[in-house]
Amino acid sequence: MKQARTITPGKLLSRRVRGGVLRRFRRSSEGSSAVEFALLAMPFFGILFATLEATAVFFASVSLETGAAEASRMVRTGQVQLQGLSREDIRNTICDAMFMGCDNRMQIDVRRFDNFSAIDFTDPLTEDGDLRTDLMFQPGNPGDIVLVRVFYVWEIATPFLGAAMSNMSSGSRLIISSAAFRNEPFGNAQAAGG
Asked: Who wins on pLDDT, 136 or 102?
């Protein structure tokens, strides 16, 4: 025969209170929105900032291309050589064509070569992942072959995107724009016109 379980009024009340609290906790949704927002906010804002930064890097690349094209035109047509413009003058011209800040993060390398097959696209980064310091400024003479390269160090602000986009030791992204061309016969034009 089974023995009957006796339930005292205190135990009965305790079960009802516990059951009621658990039931109310399961039904309550007052803090669920806050918890859901906390779980989704971090990935959402991370993706949003990564998208904005990738877009900014793209626009910086396009802006650098525009600046490098302007500098190349000045070298190719002889404006640099005839007016005695310096690397800093060219740098200022490029800065005027760019939308982002232009400070020591932007560098120019202009080299003269004997023929197109001799053009050397030397890696602008050292073995340590820093920008080289042996950049040159040789705009050349009429008919010379010249390579103009413009470098810009973009400092990546989005933490997890930095690992994917960085190519420098500092965690930054080096953006490069290049143009190779033969200088026009600007010396003959000056002699004919002057």
From this structure: 136
